[in-house]
Amino acid sequence: MLPMLTVTGAPGLLYLNGRLCGETGAAAMPIARDGVQYLELRPFDCATRGAVLRLHMENGLLTAGPAGNVYSVQWPNGWIALEIRADAPTDGGEAEPRLLAQVSMPGGQYLLVGEGDAIRFGRDAAESVTLPIQGAANASGAAIRPLPYPGLCAAEGACAAGRFAAVLRAEGEPEVVACGAGTSARIDAQGALHAVVPEDDIVGHAVASVFAPDAQGQYALISREAVWRDGAPRWPASRQETARAFLEAVRLGAADEAAGYLSRPEQANEIARRAGAFDAIVALPPDGADNPDIGVMRVDGPNSATVHRLTFTFTRRRTEQGEWKIDTVSEAT
User: What is the CA radius of gyration of the chain?
Assistant: First the structure.
């Protein structure tokens, strides 16, 4: 069976080896198992640049990842998914900066500004630093106050993740000393930053971290512990959820929890080794079979990744962590 290639991203017409195959997002193209193939995108938008890709196939696999604004994922069963992203707009249509908060410090007036999906802190655009917060476009209700340490201030507010909090240096070059965003984030009266960041997993893990200053105002991580996002776990209710919960526990380093999903807990290390290292857990495309297989993604390079199929076998035995227990895990070749 020939591998199948799908392309998403910038809208346009797709040509494989000079032959029209359809539109972006709609075409599924069979591609030779071996050799060099040429894929061309001709965008509908005249302002978007086209792309010509040289795809090198070997035994049904894409052997070299793409570069630039092109990204690939090699799925099981011969499916190769490409995403061709359009160039960033250059027409100046970006959102206007929004003043979120300001504070007067010995070095002058410092501003907290929302710029698109970023939050920046500083005296002006030339002397500013970006807070490492994902999804900052919805930031609101921010406030800044001085901390009882020379040159440091605290910023807090709402964001897409819930709440954000940051310790910022307003003395000399602006600097983010500590930052957190999650379901809760705050800076207490002593200047310690507390943040609870959910893991967005089946069971409901979260990580509670505390950054605190020493006598000189130097911040360090002083505690990090696993907590439950909703106050208590939601144990898996199916074989599929049990398989995913096991992999998530392995990824988080929760060894005791991972062992609790196994019919033979003493084999936890061996089964985790068989699952192997991975960068993400993904749902596999439906194949019509009622199986609890799970995909794990391993990043091969800056623009490419491969999804591997893990097959699980189970025994039905109810415990506190659900009614299904994993017997074996193996990776499909």
Answer: 25
